[in-house]
């Protein structure tokens, strides 16, 4: 096995490390491995001029990706600037898709700020790796809020169970429960 060095953004580096290890062994993900092989096999210089060295300055981390001996001897070990940015975009899209799904899940139970902070904590994305503001902007643009609030639905079901139990025990009269249900339907 050989190692390919790829400049990445900090959160992409963290995503790679969490999913594929360090160095990243992407052989378990055939789609991503084929994408990397394509970048190695047919180097693209199409946007080489557009992607000045300054563009790569955003990529402050360096990720190591394992490539097989066969790929190394067939295609090489070097990516052009165009292919580096293209491969990074693929990884960024995956990381952002994961983030949006997890934050959407958390938003079902809490406010957006707490959901983002919980995501950062649970998946080890500290502020210097993937900032709250960056996640918030991306989620505001592309994220989705659930159509129904699971918390509200859970509370509604729990209230119904409690009212049934209290009614059976005689703590509240059956009329109280019926009036409550009518008010809920009217809302």
Give a nutshell description of this structure.
By secondary structure, the protein is mostly helical.
Written account of the structure:
The chain is mainly alpha-helical and 187 residues long. The chain folds into 2 domains: 2-142, no CATH class; 150-186, no CATH class. Helices cover 60% and strands 7% of the residues. It is built from 8 helices and 2 strands, in the order E-H-H-E-H-H-H-H-H-H. It has a two-stranded antiparallel ribbon. Helix 4 crosses helix 6 (132-142). The protein is elongated, with a radius of gyration of 25 Å.
Structural class, judged by helices and strands?
mainly alpha
Largest sheet: 2 strands, antiparallel
- Using DSSP, what is the number of strands? 2
Total domains, how many? 2
Question: Number of helix segments?
Answer: 8
Element order: H for helix, E for strand: EHHEHHHHHH
Report how far apart the termini are: 64 Å
Low-confidence stretches: none
The residue fraction in helices comes out at 55-70%
Mean pLDDT: 83
Envelope shape:
elongated
* Percentage of residues in DSSP E strands: 5-15%
Name the strands of the widest sheet in spatial order: 1-2
Give Rg in angstroms. 25 Å
Oligomer: single chain
């Amino acid at each position: 096995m050989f190692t390919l060095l790829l400049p990445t953004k900090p959160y992409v580096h963290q995503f790679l490390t969490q999913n594929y290890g360090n160095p990243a062994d992407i052989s378990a993900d055939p789609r991503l491995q084929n994408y990397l092989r394509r970048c190695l096999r047919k180097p693209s210089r199409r946007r080489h001029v557009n992607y000045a060295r300054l563009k790569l300055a955003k990529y402050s981390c360096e990720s190591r990706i394992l490539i097989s001996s066969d790929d190394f001897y067939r295609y090489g070990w070097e990516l052009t600037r165009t292919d580096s940015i293209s491969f990074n975009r693929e990884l960024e899209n995956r990381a952002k898709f994961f983030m949006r799904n997890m934050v959407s899940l958390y938003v079902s139970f809490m406010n957006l700020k707490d959901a983002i902070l919980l995501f950062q904590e649970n998946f080890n994305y500290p502020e210097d790796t993937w900032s709250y503001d960056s996640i918030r902007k991306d989620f505001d643009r592309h994220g989705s809020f659930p159509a129904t609030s699971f918390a509200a639905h859970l509370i509604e079901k729990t209230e119904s169970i409690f009212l049934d139990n209290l009614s059976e025990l005689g703590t509240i009269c059956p009329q109280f429960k019926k009036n409550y249900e009518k008010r809920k339907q009217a809302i």
